[in-house]
Amino acid sequence: MTPTATAVSVAHATASRGFLSPSGVEVAFVLVGLVTFGAALVSVTTRQLVHAALWLVVALGGLAIEYLLLTAEFIAWVQVLIYVGSVVVLLLFGLMLTKAPIGRSPDADSGNRWAALAVAVAAAAALVWVVVDAFRTTWIDFGGAAAGSTKATGASLFQNWVLPFEALSVLLLAALVGAIVLSRKAKAETNAPPVSRSVNSRTVPGGSPSVPDSRNHPIEGTGREAAQQEGAR
Amino acid sequence: MHLAYPAVLSALLFCTGLYGVLARRNAILVLMSVELMLNAVNLNLVAFDVWLSKAARDTLHSGQALTLFTITIAAAEIGIGLAIVLAVHRNRGTADIDRLRDTAEGHGPDGDDDGDAAAAAKKAEASA
């Protein structure tokens, strides 16, 4: 960002816009932002674990609408596909597989929640103060073509960012293999009975080594599904 | 649009996620809060990319490319993280991060966990 561009932007902003006369996009952004922030707050404070995941859907969907309001439509649909479509489903599967209680669980928050609240409020105050002070006279100009259309994003992604893109596909492959390796059971020492097998009562402990028991672990399938969704993207 | 709106919203979302990471006990809820923090960063990246693509002469759309990379890495992270949490839960019977104190310093052995060393060894080889 060159200083001349900043000066031009500032002059343009002060000439044509006022702080107390918001445009329609700003009003919509603030309203959706309030819904998103409220959903995020409920998601980190509720004592019902499944409700936390479902409120996270509201927060992530609100963020997708914010991306649309910022004219980044491709990011918005990727957000809907990846986060709302697969990450929250993975989280719900994780809650189900760790036998999370359905109703209110009184020990959802640890003992240091007041210290955490103090840290979070202090960080929020400092960040909001700094950000508002820094960008008080900066405006986003929505005129012209959309900045985040699929054409612009794809052109920049496949012209300037090809190498990170390909490296990312290798990383996804590594994550896929890693998730499968982590979630399958060790097969070598099946004659030694496991120490504490309080979960997964479906699997027979100490079974014969010839029986493949990887079919009993749905996380393997969900990890592969998420990676396939990633790959399809 | 005033640039302070998305910046303030992302700062607030980040601090919400920070509170969740510090205050939650279940490991999956901690992962959810990490997702909130990553999304706050994504909103910042998108907002500043839109601003820069109009204010500067020519940009590489690096904010949106980085947002896509962050979303992908977050998906990979949630897959690996849930696999680790499930392995821990399978071996230890709990997913509460307060009770996983094998590597904690300054405390004696908790004593309520029979076969602690064996479980730790099994957890180590399960995560290896």
Summarize the structure in words.
The complex is a heterodimer of chains A (233) and B (128). Chain A has 233 residues and is mostly helical. Chain A has eight helices and no strands. The longest helix of chain A has 25 residues, at 73-97. The two termini of chain A are 32 Å apart. Chain B has one domain (4-102, 113-127): Orthogonal Bundle (Helix Hairpins), CATH 1.10.287. Chain B is 72% helix and 0% strand. Chain B has helices spanning 4-23, 27-55, 62-92, 116-127. In chain B, helix 1 runs antiparallel to helix 2 (27-55), helix 2 (27-55) packs antiparallel against helix 3 (62-92) and helix 3 runs antiparallel to helix 4. Classes of the chains: A mainly alpha (233), B mainly alpha (128).
* Number of β-strand runs of chain A: 0
Helix content of chain B: over 70%
Distance between the termini of chain A: 32 Å
Silhouette of chain A = globular
Percent range for helical residues of chain A?
A: 55-70%
**CATH topology (fold) name of chain B:** Helix Hairpins
Biggest sheet of chain B, open or closed, and with what strands and sense?
A: none
Rg estimate of chain A, integer Å: 24 Å
Q: Total number of helical segments of chain A? A: 8
Q: Supply the helix-strand structural class of chain B.
A: mainly alpha
Q: How would you describe the shape of chain B?
A: elongated
Pairing-aware structural class of the strands and helices of chain A? mainly alpha
